[in-house]
């Protein structure tokens, strides 16, 4: 048992031992002899690593419960709908009847937990001043505008199959205009790109994946390392990050 400060509510409590990413996102790895592939985007070549899930004492049981609500909802969407749909149709998934706030909070919780984790694989996830901002958003379940911490999601493919059990360490990209940071990571073959802070809504050409009126999960191939090491440039070339180009301070 470990009594310490819970990172979400900041109370001194008994802390739970939990995954940084939800347990169910490792299920595909457990099917393959408890191993998973992990890419390190910080290097010029990728590393294949076999490793068990990463546990750490971070939250009290009440706060675990808060995060769990977001996780449970995302599980029903990602594993109940997105992955089966893309596996069958091999095309973009769109859901116009989903709970924006719950799904957004889930996406942000992945980044926030990576940021508070002291584990080496999350070393590039340090959020600085945004860490406490996200803590309050998650603790209170606050709904953020689409352009605040915008979230883009792509299901990666390998040889026309879902890139299940593929993980990529968090990497950072700086945008040229405005100097904001984007964090990118792959969890069980799903690429998340999350911008920090607030961006001008006027500048949006393509809405983030997690938008008020729909959830959109794009599909792309994980065929070349360069494609996802420099994911930001690629998204930008596709016009998906065009809001950053016209963003003014
Ligand atoms: Zn707590």
Description:
This protein has helices spanning 27-30, 61-89, 100-116, 129-140, 225-229, 231-237, 242-245, and strands at 2-5, 12-19, 37-39, 55-60, 93-95, 151-158, 161-162, 166-174, 181-187, 190-195, 215-221. With 249 residues, it is α+β, with helices and mostly antiparallel strands. The chain has one domain (2-247). Strands 3, 5, 6, 7, 8, 9, 10 and 11 form an 8-stranded mixed beta sheet that branches. Strand 9 (181-187) and strand 10 (190-195) form a beta hairpin. It is globular and about 50 Å long. Residues 41-50, 225-229 and 239-249 have low confidence and may be disordered. The structure holds zinc ion (ZN).
Q: In summary, what is this structure?
A:
This protein has 249 residues and is of the alpha+beta class.
Please supply descriptive tags for the structure shown above:
single chain, alpha+beta, 8-stranded mixed sheet, 3-stranded antiparallel sheet, 11 strands
Show the helix and strand layout:
Layout: E1 2-5, E2 12-19, H1 27-30, E3 37-39, E4 55-60, H2 61-89, E5 93-95, H3 100-116, H4 129-140, E6 151-158, E7 161-162, E8 166-174, E9 181-187, E10 190-195, E11 215-221, H5 225-229, H6 231-237, H7 242-245
Parallel strand pairs: 3-8, 6-11
Antiparallel strand pairs: 1-2, 2-4, 5-11, 6-7, 6-10, 8-9, 9-10
The structure holds zinc ion (ZN).
């Amino acid at each position: 048992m470990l009594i310490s400060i819970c990172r979400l509510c900041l109370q001194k409590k008994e802390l739970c031992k939990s995954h940084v990413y939800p347990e169910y996102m490792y299920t595909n790895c457990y099917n393959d002899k408890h191993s998973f592939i992990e890419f390190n985007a910080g290097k010029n070549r990728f590393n294949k690593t076999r490793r068990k899930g990463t546990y750490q004492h971070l939250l009290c049981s009440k706060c675990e419960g808060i995060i769990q609500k977001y996780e449970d909802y995302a599980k029903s969407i990602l594993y109940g709908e997105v992955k089966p749909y893309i596996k069958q149709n091999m095309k973009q998934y769109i859901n116009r009847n989903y709970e924006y706030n719950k799904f957004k909070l889930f996406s942000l919780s992945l980044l926030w937990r990576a940021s508070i984790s002291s584990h080496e694989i999350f070393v590039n996830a340090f959020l600085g001043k945004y860490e406490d901002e996200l803590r309050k958003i998650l603790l209170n379940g606050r709904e953020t505008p689409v352009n605040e911490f915008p979230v883009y999601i792509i299901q990666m493919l390998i040889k026309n199959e879902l890139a299940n059990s593929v993980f990529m360490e968090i990497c950072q990209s700086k945008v040229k205009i405005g100097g904001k940071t984007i964090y990118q990571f792959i969890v069980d073959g799903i690429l998340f790109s999350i911008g920090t802070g607030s961006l001008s809504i006027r500048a949006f050409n393509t809405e983030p994946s997690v938008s008020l009126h729909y959830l959109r999960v794009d599909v792309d191939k994980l065929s070349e390392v360069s494609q996802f090491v420099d994911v930001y440039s690629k998204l930008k070339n596709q016009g998906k990050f065009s809001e950053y180009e016209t963003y003014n301070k």
